[in-house]
Amino acid sequence: MARSNDEVAALLQEYADLISITGGDAFKARVYEKAARAIGGHHADVRDLDAKGLREIPGVGKSIAEKVVEYFRTGSICAVDELRARIPAGVRQLTAIPTLGPRKALLLYEELGISSVDELTEAIHAERLRDLKGFGPRTEENILHGIELLHSAGDRVLLDVAMDLAEEITGALAEVTGCRRCAYAGSLRRVRETIGDIDILATAEDSASLMRAFTELPYVTEVIAHGGTKTSIRTTKGLSVDLRVVPPDSWGAALQYFTGSKAHNIRTRELAVHQGLKLSEYGLFDAESGEKIVSETEEDVYARLGLPWIPPTLREDRGEIEAGLRGELPDLVSEADIRGDLHTHTDLTDGLAPLEEMVAAAAERGYAYYAITDHGPNLYMQRMTDERMLAQRERVRELDGYGTRGRRGGMWLLHGVELNIDPDGAVDWPEEFLVGFDLCVASVHSHFNQGREAMTRRIVRACENPYVNIIGHPTTRIVGKRPGVDADLDEIFAACARTGTALEINAHPHRLDLRDEDILRARRYGVKFAVDSDAHAALHLANMRYGVGTAQRGWLTKDDVINTWPRTRLKRFLSKKEAPCSAEAHHEEAQLGRRGRRR
Ligand code: DGT
Ligand code: CA
Ligand code: CA
Ligand code: ZN
């Protein structure tokens, strides 16, 4: 894992933002933005590269390479510091509002002297923005919404940021002499989309050495509390981490308690009371005698409560207790069930890696099939043409069966596309051209603010296209940054079920779209799902785990997720839409399914 790549990427992105805010060269800002993405997605740790090695990364030129080297030598980049100094802190605070661009932020500062989010809220309510060029009532509404998002995101961080840190910490603590067990709990173990703080649990002979090692980790910026059973630190990412050390015979009870959620715990505690037990962070006890009951594993704890072990991703008090008591917990899809990835990019459009590299990385993950879905021509700046797409198809066909040696059959490569759903619901190519693809993902990439009815119609129409197999990142939300589109999701779910179109669960930690609550709803319509990485670099294929976690939070089983299916079943799913009178054929298949095949 290359944490330094993320650091450098964040710094270059900030530089790009600063260039925009200061009214600098827009082209230059884009160059830095692109380099930030390339470095963030680069497979090797950039800390280990010299200027020459850095320049081999696509989009990284001489001056960027020098800045990166400077960063590792001195801990900062002079040019970034200079621009930082030119921007009042208040303006930078304004740009944290997801729906407010850098230019507007600067304008607000220069014209109205607004230099904080609170001042901006006040100014909007006092209608002081009305006289500014480019600020209509619509903009005001957008900004207010952005402020709301900013506040609701609070200090929470994205799932992958917390996961990387937690794995590093548990890895380091497991090395400390005397550490017997060490694991992360809390919202992270439940795979929530954002994480407030990391909760780590350990058992050890001697808690003192573990606690000391914890406070001495290199990325600790502050020790908030230091004790024998609980220590809290803050890290360079601003994220806090709690470490609790418990006796080995309380491990199960403690892990259950600190995994939460709080709502789930309240229910399990009620069950305990009914059994004459007491369940707390200190362990499981007999309520009458106060005697501690050995609870080395979570299975022990749940069994004492009359429940099967409940997967952490279900522990939100959304019916899992009732289902457990009835013995009807879903057999959740797991990462090991995933046989392939159906939405990925290459450097033919905005991906960073060439086709061969992506395919090799997919084979490395043991996939049985893999779809390449670069953008169609309607997405601006992607420069896609029929010829380029067909040339890519040739190369995909040549690679089909990749990795045959030493393995049965090799990998089935699907040549697909990510189509752009235009404001009317039409897509990039006519049917004659679409028929040549093995699979079509279709996604909304622009015009996010259409009205509810138009947006619903737009997506439903895409579902009705006989060549569209998957709706990519269906709501287009960006976690903590952009709300999902306003559409009648129920109508879309029904359309997906009716037309045999799968809904994507985009696994990128910035997206996680559909999100858990939407999945729970969609599932009731009998919709099928595709959990996809939407990888733009080989490294991103590993984001699959976050998509699977989200699918689990939506209670999905293998049968619900098309990319767990064997090839033949997937092939049938992808082709049946194209059959004439597909709706009827569909209906017929459903009937047959119910009655069993007669022949
Ligand atoms: P976060 O950190 O906001 O992302 O969410 P969590 O779920 O990790 O919450 P956190 O860190 O405050 O606490 C970790 C777990 O400890 C939580 O999931 C359940 C348990 N817990 C904390 N406070 C309470 C409480 O007041 N009652 C009960 N029953 N459990 C609690
Ligand atoms: Ca937590
Ligand atoms: Ca906590
Ligand atoms: Zn994509």
Structure description:
This protein has 599 residues and is of the alpha/beta class. It has four domains: 4-153, Orthogonal Bundle (DNA polymerase, domain 1); 157-246, Beta Polymerase, domain 2 (2-Layer Sandwich); 251-326, Beta Polymerase, domain 3 (2-Layer Sandwich), CATH 3.30.210; 335-598, Metal-dependent hydrolases (TIM Barrel). The strands form four sheets. The protein has a seven-stranded parallel sheet with strand order 11-12-13-14-15-16-17. Helix 6 (89-95) crosses helix 7 and helix 20 (452-464) runs parallel beside helix 21. The protein is globular and about 75 Å long. The protein starts with a helix and ends with a helix. Residues 581-585 and 588-599 have low confidence and may be disordered. It binds 2'-deoxyguanosine-5'-triphosphate, calcium ion (CA) (2 copies) and zinc ion.
For this entry, give a set of tags.
599 residues; alpha/beta; DNA polymerase, domain 1; Beta Polymerase, domain 2; Beta Polymerase, domain 3; 4 domains; 7-stranded parallel beta sheet; 5-stranded mixed beta sheet; 25 helices; 44% helix; globular; binds 2'-deoxyguanosine-5'-triphosphate; binds calcium ion; binds zinc ion
Radius of gyration: 26 Å
Number of helices: 25
Within CATH, the superfamily of the largest domain carries the name: Metal-dependent hydrolases
- What CATH calls the topology of the largest domain is TIM Barrel
- Give the C-level CATH assignment of the largest domain: Alpha Beta
| Overall pLDDT level | 91
Lateral strand order in the biggest sheet: 11-12-13-14-15-16-17
> How many strands?
17
Helix- and strand-based class? Answer: alpha/beta
Helical proportion, percent range: 40-55%
Number of domains: 4
Major sheet size, sense and barrel closure? 7 strands, parallel
Could you tell me which ligands this complex binds, including any ions or cofactors?
2'-deoxyguanosine-5'-triphosphate, calcium ion, zinc ion
